[in-house]
């Protein structure tokens, strides 16, 4: 049951105030969502800033509701510190896009102050300091801050709030001053950022900041803001066919992922990603980060995350798809592929497919696959589940997508290498039926193998294995038991190539040296001169070795 917002007393800054603020912020961003999308021209004219802000706030609100629900089971109330930290964490894990990632850092900055013991500070002074910390944190999270954006609006709000707090204002007074300061700063953004001035709009992200601060004032005062934040151009801004909004050719992909890593590793990651693309924003702390960057090489951005720590919830979006959505257009056809490693996710992204990462032992929910289908934004979608255990989930997602009017075909791929084979023959310009038939045939003609290390003694179709033995599974069944990865891989290849083949695909796991690929390639060339070999890095979570023979 949704939380019913309750007005607070002017000096009351507690957990219930945060909960009310969250509910009102979701409602305000929901109302402004389409208007904000319509004026979104910076940093990319992809008409999704309002949507990203709304989804980020919605994730934060869910986390807050869950925090209140857990506390209700044991104690009669929760603390301000508990509530505000849950609110910021929910925004961090659910942040969408450049604007949502910055909003998450703004909320984290608020939590850094409100989550501490207030000491002698009154509610007004405490809130003013929280808003200042929020603006400073957001600036620090953006690799190359630009004025005339939501950073500028947040900073102006903080200055106005500090002035009210210094004058001994209540929490409601500080919130009102911050809201007014943000609105004034928003109106000035077209004169600060040329792309906004040319389009005749205010900054879309700044509109979101105004909406959230208006919700804060309403939560503390009980008074509803007089106007919605968007007062820019009332009609959608014309979108360029492919170039970025600033008129320059920009990176082709947006990459977002959560990352478990140390602060030192994240500092190195920032430097590495800054050299790969632009719009870099890294937010978070205490071992958990949300990474956002625009790049031409999504695989390299993901690999940088693997070097730094453990990336997950990876989202790769092609801006061509986003710009079609911005113009209200759908692509004719898209491919959605479930893959077991970050490297494969980047590889699929480079090939134009929407990738869904499935970690070992985990089966993505149908809702996750449905979200990927919707993000592909196409009239027709080819879905590659990549495993027999994923087929039922893929079929369920396809049925839901068909209810939305999307034509979906599920190709029963049982391995990532079969998905790569299908993707290689994908023809987006041919007929849907012919494309599905060709992709299905390519997948079906690819024998697949996986090498894994036995965890315990057990009986297999190839005999008894001991813990530490290397198992070679061909088409899902154990066919070879060996003492080393190299020995087992060569035995598996010999069996698979015994029935013929033209191309061998090797997908190396994260700890497998390149020397193994070189040795296997030489092994294939020595015994099968007409067979070509290609090698990819599967990235973290992939098996030690995947083999495909076409």
Q: Could you describe the 3D structure shown?
A:
Helix content is 51%, strand content 18%. With 550 residues, the protein is of the alpha/beta class. The strands form four sheets. The chain has a six-stranded mixed β-sheet, with helices on both faces. Strand 5 (331-339), helix 13 and strand 6 (354-357) form a beta-alpha-beta unit. Helix 2 runs antiparallel to helix 3 and helix 5 (123-141) packs antiparallel against helix 6 (150-166). The radius of gyration is 26 Å and the shape is elongated. The model is unreliable at 72-76 and 231-248 (pLDDT under 50).
Biggest sheet layout: 6 strands, mixed
Total number of strands: 16
Q: Tell me what portion of residues adopts beta-strand conformation.
A: 15-25%
Q: In what order do the strands lie side by side in the largest sheet?
A: 13-12-9-16-14-15
Look at the structure and give the mean pLDDT. 84
Q: Low-confidence stretches at least 5 residues in length (pLDDT < 50)?
A: 72-76, 231-248
Shape: elongated
**Gap between N and C termini:** 54 Å
Instruction: State the helix count.
Output: 19
Secondary-structure content class: alpha/beta
Q: What would you report as the Rg, rounded to the nearest angstrom?
A: 26 Å
The level of helicity is 40-55%
């Amino acid at each position: 049951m949704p939380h019913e917002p309750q007005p607070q007393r002017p000096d009351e800054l507690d957990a219930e105030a945060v909960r009310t603020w969250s509910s009102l912020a979701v409602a305000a961003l929901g109302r402004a969502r389409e208007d904000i999308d319509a004026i979104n021209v910076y940093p990319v004219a992809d008409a999704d800033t309002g949507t990203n802000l709304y989804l980020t706030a919605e994730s934060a609100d869910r986390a807050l509701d869950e925090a209140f629900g857990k506390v209700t089971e044991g104690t009669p109330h929760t603390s301000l510190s508990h509530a505000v930290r849950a609110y910021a964490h929910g925004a961090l894990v659910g942040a969408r896009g450049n604007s949502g990632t910055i909003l998450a850092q703004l909320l984290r900055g608020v939590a850094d102050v409100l989550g501490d013991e207030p000491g002698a500070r009154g509610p007004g002074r405490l809130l003013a300091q929280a808003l200042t910390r929020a603006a400073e944190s957001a600036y620090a999270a953006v690799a190359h801050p630009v004025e005339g954006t939501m950073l500028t609006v947040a900073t102006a709000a903080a200055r106005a709030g500090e002035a009210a707090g210094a004058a001994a204002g209540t929490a409601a007074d500080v919130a009102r001053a911050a809201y007014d300061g943000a609105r004034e700063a928003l109106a000035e953004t077209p004169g600060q950022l040329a792309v906004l001035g040319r389009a005749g709009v205010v900054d879309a992200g700044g509109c979101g900041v105004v909406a959230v601060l208006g919700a804060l004032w309403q939560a503390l005062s009980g008074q509803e803001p007089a106007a919605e934040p968007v007062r820019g151009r009332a009609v959608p801004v014309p979108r360029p066919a492919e170039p970025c909004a600033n008129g320059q050719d920009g990176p082709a992909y947006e990459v977002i992922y959560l990352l478990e890593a140390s602060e030192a590793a994240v500092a190195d990651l920032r430097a590495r990603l800054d050299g790969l693309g632009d719009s870099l924003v890294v937010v978070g702390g205490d071992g958990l980060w949300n990474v956002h960057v625009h790049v031409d090489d999504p695989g390299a951005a993901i690999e940088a995350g693997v070097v730094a720590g453990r990336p997950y919830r990876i989202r790769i979006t092609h801006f061509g798809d986003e710009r079609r959505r911005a113009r209200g257009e759908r692509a004719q056809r898209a491919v959605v592929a479930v893959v077991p490693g970050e490297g494969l996710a980047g590889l699929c992204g480079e090939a134009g497919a929407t990738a869904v990462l499935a970690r070992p032992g985990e089966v993505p929910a149908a809702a996750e696959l449905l979200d990927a289908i919707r993000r592909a934004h196409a009239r027709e979608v080819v879905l590659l589940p990549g495993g027999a255990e994923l087929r039922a989930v893929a079929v369920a997602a396809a049925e839901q997508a068909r209810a939305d009017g999307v034509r979906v075909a599920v190709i029963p791929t049982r391995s990532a290498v079969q998905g790569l084979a299908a993707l290689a023959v994908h023809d987006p310009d041919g007929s849907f039926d012919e494309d599905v038939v060709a992709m299905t045939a390519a997948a079906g003609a690819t024998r697949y193998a996986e090498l894994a290390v036995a965890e315990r003694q057990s009986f297999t179709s190839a005999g008894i294995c001991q813990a530490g033995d290397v198992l070679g599974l061909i088409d899902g069944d154990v066919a070879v038991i060996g003492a080393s990865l190299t020995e087992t891989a060569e035995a598996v290849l010999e069996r698979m190539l015994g029935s013929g083949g033209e191309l061998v695909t090797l997908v190396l796991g994260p700890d497998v040296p390149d020397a193994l690929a070189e040795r296997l390639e030489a092994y294939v060339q020595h015994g099968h001169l007409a067979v070509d070999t290609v090698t990819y890095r599967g990235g973290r979570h992939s098996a030690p070795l995947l083999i495909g023979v076409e």
